[in-house]
Amino acid sequence: MKEQRNGLLLVVSGPSGVGKGTLVKALMERNSRIKTSVSATTRAPRPGEIDGIHYFFKTEEEFKGMVDRGEFLEYIHVFGSKYYGTPRTFVEQQLSEGYDVILEIDVQGAMKVKQAFPDAVLIFITAPSMSEIKSRLIGRGTETMEQVEKRFATAFEEIKMIPHYDYVVVNDMIDKAVHHLEAILEAERCRTGRSAYLTEAIEEIGR
Ligand code: ADP
Ligand code: 5GP
User: Fold this and answer.
1) Of the residues 32, 97, 120, 130, which has the fewest C-beta atoms closer than 10 A?
2) Distance CA 68, CA 56 (A)
């Protein structure tokens, strides 16, 4: 059977500080077929964040221009004033080349992606407890206490969205959580509904 196929579109969401970035980085280090989409945002870079690697950092005017030109797969306006969006071209190109693409986006964005791409796999990451989420957020040391409180308050709303996701992964131990993500990927690649595999299998059997 040929290996050529469209990649999987994976959406990873979860409260800020739960460990999404940490898990996705670890997953990518172990899987060369996975790419992450780099979002555009109007929020300021954190120390160590590089334009084009962690985000495309944009002014509000630049971001709105991209919106007007239809350059986003989805975008949102959160935390009072900041915009975040997924550039469309990169994702579509990588999927068509057979790479699996991870979007690390919020719950509103995830719902929009599911509507546009019903085949997308939605994974919600959570932590063993709310207090653990808060201490990780504080421990990361990248937000002011006011920003931490804002993000933590949003976490309660986000967790209510878990039933809309295909999978939930509890990020207790990093290795275990990464293993669960890999298991989800493997299972999804084997789904009968993913037509490229099925068509090829049927063709092969028919020969
Ligand atoms: P997110 O991307 O969800 O906002 P990060 O990946 O930045 O979260 O992780 C937030 C903080 O929690 C970081 O300091 C990270 O090192 C830490 N962290 C991530 N996963 C775990 C874990 N399983 N146990 C303890 N700390 C963790
Ligand atoms: P942070 O500022 O911590 O990098 O991200 C804040 C939130 O925005 C996280 O929940 C993150 O997943 C989400 N986010 C990042 N990029 C995008 C995007 O392109 N679209 C949407 N909808 N959410 C995003």
Assistant:
1) 32
2) 17
